[in-house]
Amino acid sequence: MSLLASGTIATRDQVRRERIAAPPKSVCVLLPVWGREYIRQFLNYSLPTLLAPGNIPALAATLPCRFVAMTRTSDAHWLRQHSAWRRLSSYCSVDLLYIDDLITVGNHSTTITLAFQRAVMATGHEKCDTCFFFLVSDYIVADGSLAAVLRRMQAGASAVQTTNLQCIDDALDGLFARFLPAEGAEAGDLDDLWSHGGNPVAIFRPRELVSLALDHLHPAMLANTMDFPACHNSHTNRLFWQAGRKALVGRYFLMHMLCIRPETDTFTIGASCDYSFIPEMCPSGNVEAITDSDEYLAVEGQPRGHEWGFLRPGPLTAEGLVSSLEEWTTAHHRANLQHTVIFHAGDLDSAVAEARSRSDKFVADVIRRLSSTPTPHRDHPYWRGAIAAHRRDTGQTLDDDDWAALRAASGRASRGRLVDMFTDFQTWLVGHPLEYRPWQPRWPDFVDVVDRIRTLHASSGRMLVVTADPIDLANWRSQFTPTPHIVALDFLARPNDVPRPTNPSGFSVALVLLDAESLTRAEHLPRRLLPMLTACASVIVVIANPRQRRLRRFNQDLCEHVTRLFDIRLRTVAVHYVPVSRSRAIVQRAMASFARRAVRHPLAQGLPGLVAGSLLALVSRLLNRRARASDARVTVPPRCSSVAIEFRVDGANPEGTGSPSPAKM
After folding, report:
1. Mean pLDDT of the chain
2. Which of 182, 243, 308, 590 could be disulfide-bonded to 355 (CB atoms 3.0-4.6 Å)?
3. Distance (Å, whole) CA 372 – CA 367
């Protein structure tokens, strides 16, 4: 019986011998891509390089090959109609795997990881005989790169890791200009060229691509270059040293798991793919890294502003680097440092040897400073936050661990004893979102809404809450039994396929929290919300002006955009405006300012903030009482801090009125 099939823990040498005796039987190329711009970039730049003779054609000529693109249902036609896609299908079988349920906004790494995992598991019992190539849609790949990877797999490796260079994306236009007509059409015309008769194959030699990248290095790469001390990346996962004019030496913590032939068909994914796939799928460590750009090279084009938020002035020091690495590096990441990657546009020379020596010295200093205990790849803290955010953004139910992970990921976990004390005191003093104290300036906006929600929830018990920031409502939701199901606004406000209800019987109460900005994105909200509700369900939408600025403009914004909430299946039952005076708005901004300063600087600003906040709270209480008393007399105030609208599904109106009422809820 095979060591791999028996579940025996095998050494690297044992696995290698067995793999040589039983080479892989097939190749499966996996590539996730969605969104018009990303698909266009893939079809015009990346796929033509994958069609070079030494890439996918070489894979297909060696073993049975299948290419699987993971995409949105609505994006599939962009792929099918392109000549590069049709050319691809002439080399191997091509399939589309739809991942609409996995796609969220701003959490691409999690979507990609889950999509890769789904595709691998769908292979079934053949997965341990298949070489999976995990590609990304924006890589420009040198000719012969994929063939080189497959040769290593056939020679006994269980996985091959690679690296890439980043350049400014504008440089790609010049690189592909050679394929345009001689009369000099612009690079943007690649769309027409490939789609209407142009040969969609782009062949680039490795040294040609290295030369391009060195001439147009991305700022994020320069910030990781030890010879450029003007700035550094505060959260880097790679380091570089110049080696003359035609070479760069790199040391990587994070390497791309380009190809894996799983050693086991049971594995746990507890981190993103470049953290967990290799240690989970190849537990023996039978893994190779390609370290010479002549053998494998991929260049990634990124906008100039990519990762600008991580750039800091001054040089990167070993001490500064270690403080970041301690937070996230696993044992596998630290092992990657042993590889010295050389990118060169010419022959290797003494400058490369000298740069390698400098890199060895710096890396040795970093390793010496690192603690002896790396972060486990399973249940990695970054993954806990990412997967909790993914569950939130896809409308899934979150448990207590998910909420804790979201608070930690957003910086709302413990920030030190003194800061936590002030934060807890502030929450006790003014309340938490929706459950505000009578002196908190937001109290008039939500006191009647919350009372109405409690009444509706008590009679139904099934409530859905839609909000831009679900973490804010973690404490509030815990007061209800059963607890409300909270989904992110972005999940319901974008024009994707209509989601299926998480509650099989639907929700009978829905609370939707918006501000003027999110109201402009709520055009698809009713259509996506209604399938999650029962017949005759109540929907309360609160639109607030959280910063109390541009008071008159807020009313105008409501008039311009509130019609986005209209749907023929919803009847408006009540509309409730809350007026705001300039005094109340000024007090709210002042209280918020003192609270922020007290939390950020508790020693210096804590006591002044407490004194000033207490005086402002007294004034705010009087203004809140006046606002609540006056809104009974004013139908539509000239300035309002919020408006709450109650709808009823399917036109049912239990009050028996034929038109909406401006009265309180």
Report:
1. 83
2. 243
3. 9
Long-range contacts of 478-485 (CB under 8 A, 24+ apart): 479/435, 484/457, 484/511, 485/397
What is the distance of C-alpha 148 from the center of its chain? 32
H/E segment holding residue 448 = helix 443-460
466 touches 529 (CB < 8 A): yes
CB-neighbour burial class of residue 435 (10 A; exposed 0-12, middle 13-18, buried 19+): middle
CB 239 within 8 A of CB 129: no
**Residue type (1 letter), 587:** V
Closest CA to 411 of 437, 392, 385, 445: 385
Determine if the pTM surpasses 0.85.
no
Q: What are phi and psi of 575, to 5 degrees?
A: -130, 130
| Residue that wins the pLDDT comparison between 430 and 37 | 37
State how beta strands 485-488 and 463-467 pair: parallel
455-479 pLDDT, tens digit each: 888 877 788 999 887 877 877 777 7
pLDDT at 480: 78
E strand or H helix at 93: strand 93-98
The rounded radius of gyration (Å) of the Cα atoms in the chain is 29
d(CA 404, CA 395) in angstroms, rounded, equals 17
The pair of three-digit structure tokens given for residue 179, joined into one six-digit string: 């394929």
Burial environment of residue 589 by CB neighbours within 10 A (0 to 12, 13 to 18, 19 or more): middle
Kindly state the DSSP code that residue 189 receives in the 8-state scheme. Answer: G
Q: What's the 3-state SS for 557-601?
A: HHHHHHHHHCCCCEEEEEEEEEECCHHHHHHHHHHHHHHHHHHHC
SS3 of residue 204 by DSSP: coil
- For 10-36, give one letter per residue: b (16+ CB within 10 A) or e: bebeebbebbeeeebeebbbbbbbbbe
Report the greatest alpha carbon distance in the chain. 88
Angle, nearest 10°, between helix axes 381-393 and 400-409? 110
Q: Among residues 168, 139, 172, which one has the least CA distance to residue 297?
A: 139
What's the rounded Cα separation, in Å, for the pair 113 and 103? 11
